[in-house]
Amino acid sequence: MARYSDRVWPDYPLFLEGVREHTKPGDTIAVIVPTMQWDTGYSYAYYRASYFLTGREVLPLMRPDNVRLPQNFRGAKFIAVFGVGLRAPADVVWRSGRGALLRLRR
User: Fold this and answer.
1) Which of 5, 80, 83, 104 stands 20 to 30 A from 38 (CA)?
2) Is 91:61 a contact under the CB 8 Å cutoff?
3) How far is the C-alpha of 59 from the C-alpha of 50, rounded, in Å?
4) What is the pLDDT along the chain (106 residues), one digit of tens a residue?
5) Which 3-state string (H, E, C) describes the chain?
6) Phi, psi of 51 (to 5 degrees)
7) Pairing of strands 78-82, 99-104
8) Half-sphere exposure of 94 (CA within 13 A, CB side)
9) Helix 12-21 vs helix 42-52: angle between axes, to the nearest 10 degrees?
10) By C-alpha distance, which of 89, 91, 57 is closest to 102?
11) What is the pTM of this model?
12) Residue 95, CA distances (Å) to 35, 45, 88 in order
């Protein structure tokens, strides 16, 4: 597991470490990744983020039955976007490689 867990997105753990460095305990964070289907990668991204971002609340944007949870997007203080673009009114807090940490404008 340690050797193969990040073979699809090998830079994802490094991205999550950066997100951790730029947030604080108690912050709410939603994650957007290239696949927003639970069984084709979103579950991996969500659970991996929950592990790396211990102390922060990672809000899922998708349920296991692929129902979207827009209330979690709106309720998150930060959006961690990896490998895709996001068209939403937001300020870039931090950017690195294929990802960015955004704060939505309220």
Assistant:
1) 104
2) no
3) 9
4) 344 456 667 799 999 999 999 999 999 999 999 999 999 999 999 999 999 999 999 999 999 999 999 999 999 999 999 999 888 889 999 999 999 999 988 8
5) CCCCCCCCCCCHHHHHHHHHHCCCCCCEEEEECCCCCHHHCHHHHHHHHHHHCCCCEEECCECCCCCECHHHHHHCCEEEEECCCCCCCEEEEEEECCEEEEEECC
6) -70, -50
7) antiparallel
8) 15
9) 40
10) 91
11) 0.91
12) 20, 18, 16
Q: Two tokens at 91? A: 């300020």
**Which residue, among 83, 77, 75, 74, has the nearest Cα to 36 in the 3D structure?**
83
Instruction: Compute the CA torsion angle 104, 37, 84, 51 (nearest 10 deg).
Output: 70
